[in-house]
Amino acid sequence: MEAVAEAxxxxxxxxxxxxxxxxLARKSxxxxxxxxxxxxxxxxxxxxxxxxxxxxxxxxxAQNGMDPIWIRDRIALERRMPGLIADVQKVADLxxxxxxxxxxxxxxxxxxxxxxxxxxxxxxxxxxxxxxVTVDISTLALKTSNAVILRGGSDVLNSNxxxxxxxxxxxxxxxxxxxxIQYISSSDRRHVSEMLxxxxxxxxxxxRGGNGLHTFCxxxxxxxxxxxxxGVCHIYVDDSALLDRVLPVxxxxxxxxxxxxxxxxxxxAHEAVASxxxxxxxxxxxxxxxxxxxxxxxxxxxxxxxxxxPASDEDFDTEWYNLTLNLKVVDGVDEAIAHIARHGTQHSDxxxxxxxQHAERFLNEVDSAAVYWNASTRFTDGSxxxxxxxxxxxxxxxxxxxxxxxxxxxxxxxxxxxxxxxxE
Length: 424
Prior knowledge:
Layout: H1 10-24, H2 29-45, H3 47-63, H4 68-75, H5 81-93, E1 101-106, E2 112-119, E3 122-127, H6 132-143, E4 147-151, H7 157-173, E5 181-183, H8 190-195, E6 204-208, H9 211-220, E7 233-237, H10 243-255, E8 264-270, H11 271-286, E9 291-294, H12 296-302, E10 308-310, E11 324-330, H13 333-343, E12 348-352, H14 356-365, E13 370-373, E14 392-394, E15 402-404, E16 410-417
Parallel strand pairs: 3-4, 3-6, 4-5, 7-8, 7-12, 8-11, 9-10, 9-11, 12-13
Antiparallel strand pairs: 1-2, 2-16, 14-15
Helix pairs in contact: 2-5, 2-7, 3-7, 5-6, 6-7, 10-11
């Protein structure tokens, strides 16, 4: 087990984070990029130690009977290390949003107005599993001149402690305060409640986890909370879709990483193609271990397959996190849009169609953070969208929506320049 602090003073962590953020605000883009590139180098050099710590977490997860799919997608780091390092390097290469002028004008009285991007200040991140999030959030915060206080889950404590130690060592070597990145080295849930009340020190809370975590944060925080990541995602196959090209997209959306929030949970099939499509879906995805919960009309088509069971109403509201897929036959695009409005979580939804009019209706009327035409929902990801990484996928509407990357970790201030100007 990595070293864990016996006593945690969250107030002092908040004080330290505020002080670190003030120092970080004086660092140039070149200085920040240099330390981020050094983090990428350190992750590569320290990979054996990181994977050793991660292996301890994997062993504990297996002992505790955790779902192997969850372990693979949410805890294991070995396959993700090359991509994680590449994402850090990408963050260094991206433009620094801090200081960007969003609006510039001169008033009749001679006052010059500038609307300029500025850091949020101190971020509080609460997340479950996914030790790569420790690196993603830390590097994005660093690039945007924000300090961050991290609280990860008990199932990846060894991994997170090792990663945090590496990040802080790199900061110190490059003359940055180590307190730019701090980690709450305890799984005691009381620290989450205390963290949510630290409004004097933390400027934004970002929870990444299940619906229970998000609800708890929204209901108990005295700090603004940006929630997201609950993904009951849909793909609607329209009557004009090219069925031979549909199957690989559906396979990718469900089986590539079934325990992530942008995985497809419900397939909606137009009634004109359902009889041809659904048996192929059951055969192809079923061979990968997918089990199916079918609505009444879908069950009439594929219900004789032992991998298919009747779906309940609750199934269509469920984020499975595993190889389970809901099937439903709909009359057309209107019913598909209505179903998503009722059961979706405003995360990611897709239409597969050759009819541009139907696609435009879907794109305009489905109120999700990411809406796709002829593409897998798996692209709702900061790295896949060219942002380097993300701190979360926001499904709310204020300030940030979709992958939260560099720009979403900034706010703005008004800069007003006068010539000893008084208001008349």
